[in-house]
Write a structure and sequence with these properties.
The complex is a heterodimer of chains A (717) and B (67).
Chain A lengths: L1 E9 L8 E4 L4 E6 L5 H13 L30 E8 L4 E8 L5 E7 L2 E4 H12 L3 H7 L1 E2 L1 H7 L4 H11 L3 H12 L2 H39 L9 H21 L16 H18 L1 H44 L2 H39 L19 H66 L9 H57 L5 H54 L8 E6 L5 E6 L12 H18 L8 E5 L7 H14 L4 E6 L2 H10 L4 E10 L3 E6 L1
Parallel strand pairs in A: 3-12, 3-13, 8-11, 11-12
Antiparallel strand pairs in A: 1-2, 1-4, 4-5, 5-6, 6-7, 9-10, 13-14
Helix pairs in contact in A: 4-5, 4-15, 6-14, 7-13, 7-14, 8-9, 8-13, 9-13, 10-12, 10-13, 11-12, 14-15, 14-16, 15-16, 16-17
Chain B lengths: L2 H8 L5 H51 L1
Classes of the chains: A alpha/beta (717), B mainly alpha (67).
Amino acid sequence: MFTIKNLKIKGFRGYMDEKEFAFNKPITILSGENHCGKSSTLNAIEWCLFGNECIGKNTGIRERIDWEIPNRNLGSRSDVFVELELEDENKNICKIKRKWTSSRKDELSISSGHEQFQGNEAEGKVARLLKLSFQDFLTTVYQHQEAVRAVLTQEPRDRNEAIDRLLGLSAYRNILTGIEAAKISSKQNEMDNTFDEFRNKINTILETRNKDLSNMKIQAGQKGLKEEQLNEKGVLNIANIAKKQLEKFASESGLGLAELGVPNQWKDMFLFQKGAEDEIRRLRSEMPDVKKQKELFDSRSKFTQLKIEYDSKKNNLKSAEKELEDLSMEKGKEDDLNNSKSQIEKQISEKEKEMSEANAKAATISKALEYLQLEGVNKNTCPVCGKETADLLMHLKKEWEDKYEKQVGKIQDEINKLKSDLKNTESLLNRYRELKEKKEYINKALNDANKKISELLGRAITERDDSSVLIIGQVNQIDEELKKLEQSVKSKQEILDKIGVLLEQIRIVIEILTHEEKKKIVEQIKQSDEYKQIEKIKDTMALLTNNLDKIKDAINAASNEEAKGKIVSTGNTIDNFFCKITNNPMVNKVNISVSTDTRGRNNYEFKDQNDKEITPILSQGDLNALALSIFLGMAYLMGADQSCGFIMLDDPSQSLGSGHKGKLVEVINEVLNNRMVILSTMDKELQDFIISRITKNKTQYIFDNWTPAHGPEIRIG
Amino acid sequence: MNYKEAVEKQISGDTHEQKQRRMLWEDIAAAYNKGGEDEVKTVLTAHVEKITKEFKKNLKQLDETIL
C-alpha cells in the first residue's frame, strides 16, 4: 500500500504557477471558497495517475466531457505537469510525473530508486503499482460530487445507475447502452421483413405466371393448337410444316426463298419465326400477279389522271370559243372593228385639221386683242392693215367671243367623242386578240394531252377521235384485267395467311414455353446459391442477435454478481456509517439488497429493520449520507486490501445539516485508522468539526486570492 | 477481476457457439476500451452493415432472376 507524500502542480486547470503540497499527516484539508483551485488539486492527482482515462464520457461523470487540462491563461506556454511522490510501507519513494503535450497526448515518466521509465513502459509500471482501474479509483479512492449528487435523484432507475457508478459498475451499463444503441434486433427484424416480402413476391409472381399460362393455353386452343403441341417437339413440328409450305409456295410462284433453318431447340425458334415472317412479307409483295396488279393500278391511275386533265382542257377551250363568238355577235367581227377604227381615225384627222385652221385665224385675232389692250395703243387702228375702225377693240372682242370660242369648242368636243370611240374600238380589238391567244394556248395544251394519251394508248389520235372516250375504254379494259388478277392473288394470299397462322402458333408456343421456364426458375429459386446464401446470412444475423442477447445477459449477470459481492462485503460497514451519520430514529438498521429490474439491470433496495423501503422517508441530507456511507464503506473495507493508502473527498458536506456533518467527521476519523484522507471543502462548519473532532494530526491548506495570472494563493492554516 | 473478465466468466464454454460469443465480446470490450459506448455502437453497426450489405446484394440478384 502506498500513500501520497508530495504533490507538485503547474499549469493544470485552475493552476498557473508551480505549487507544492506535502502530505505528511493522516488528514489534509484543502479549504477555501469556490473556484480557488481545491477541486483542481484533487483532479491533478487523478490525472497524474490515470491520464486521459479520467477525461470524457466513459468516466460516467458528465462534467468530464470536454474537460480541458491546460489552464486557458497559459497562452502558448505549454509547461503543464503534475508530479506525485508516493511512498510504500517500506518507505520506498516513487516519483510519477505526467506532462501535458497536446489535447490527445501526454508524457508519463516514473522513477523508483535507480529505475526510470517513460511512455508506455511508465504507464504499465503505474498500472502495476496502483492495481486498480480508474472506475475502482472513483469507487474506493476519489469520492466525486457528481456521483453523490446522482444518488439523491428520486427516480429508481436513475438512482440505480448512480449506485452502480458508486460501486464502480459504470462499464457494464455503458457497454449495454452502446450495444442497445446499435439496434441490432430492429435491423434483424428489418431483414426478416424484407425477406418475407421477397417470399410473398415469389408467391405473387407464381400466381401471376400460372394465370398467364392458363390464359395463353386458352389462346393457343383458339388458334387451333392442341395440348400435346405445347412443347418443344410440338413447336418443332409446326416449324417444319411452315418451312415446307413456304418452300412450295415460293417454288410455285417462281420466287427464291431465304435459308430458313428449323432449329433443334425451342429457345432458338424465335429466329426462325421472325425470319419466316419476313419471308412471308417479301413473298406477298414480290408475287408476279401482285406485281402485275400493281402495274395495272399504276396505269389505271395515270389514265384516270390524264382523262381529268384532258376533260378540263377541252372544257376550257369550249368556253374560250364561246366567249369569242359572243363578242363577234355583240360587237361585230374583227374586220368590221378594224374598218370602224380606220374611219374614226380619219375623222379625227379631219377634225384636227379643221381645228388647226380655226386656230390660225383665232391666233391672229387673239394677238391683235392683246396688242390693242396695251397702253398707249390706238384702240381703233387695226394693227395688221392700219385701217381705222371705231370701237375696233370692242368689235374684235365680241367677234372672238361669239365666233371663235364656240367654233373651237365644238370641234374639240367632236374630237373628244371620236377619240373615245376609237378607244372603245381598240379595247374591243385587244379583247379579240386576247381571246384568240387564249384559244390558241388551250388548243396547244389539248394537243399535248392528246400526244400523251396517244403515247399511253400506243396509237395515233386523229381529230376525229374523242380522247376522253378512248381513255374510258382503256380504263375499263384495265378493270377487267384487275378483276381477273384479284381472284388469283387472293388464293395465293390465303396460302400465305395459312402459313402465317402456323407462325403465330409457333409464337404462342414459344411464349408458353418461355413462361413455363420463368415459372420453373421462380419455383426452383429456393435451391439457388443466392437463396441459400441469404438463409445463411439470416442465420448469421440471428446468431449475432442471439449472441448479443446472451452477452447482455452475461453483462447484467456479471454486474449483478459484482454488485452483490461488494454489497455483501461492505453492507454492515455501510449500515454502521449511515446510522452513525444520520442518527435517524426511524432507521436503526439499513439492509442493502441487490436484485434485477425488468431489463436485467441492478436494482438496489435499502430497507430498514422492519424490512421496509427507507428511501421514501429519507431527506436529501439522509440520501447524501447514504451515498457517502456507500463510498466510505467501500473505501474503508475494500480499500484496505488495495494498494491506495489514501482517499479523496470532494466537498462531502453538501446537503448535510450540522448534526450530519459532525457525525460524518466522526466516521472520517474512523476511516483514518485505515486510510490517509485528503478532503476538499468550502464548508467552515465542517472545517471546524475536523479541527475539533479529528483525533489524528492534520494539515490545512487554505486557498484564496485566485488570479488568472498566477492561479491560487495557498498557505498553510 | 475487471468487467471484461467478469463477463467472460459468464459466457465461458467450449462449444463453437460459446467461442464465437466470446470473440464477439472481445470485440465489444476492445471497442469500449478504445472509444467508450459510442465505439461499441460504431463497431456493432459496422458489423451489421456488412451482413446487411451482403444480404441486399444476394436479394437483388434473386430479384433480378425472378423478373
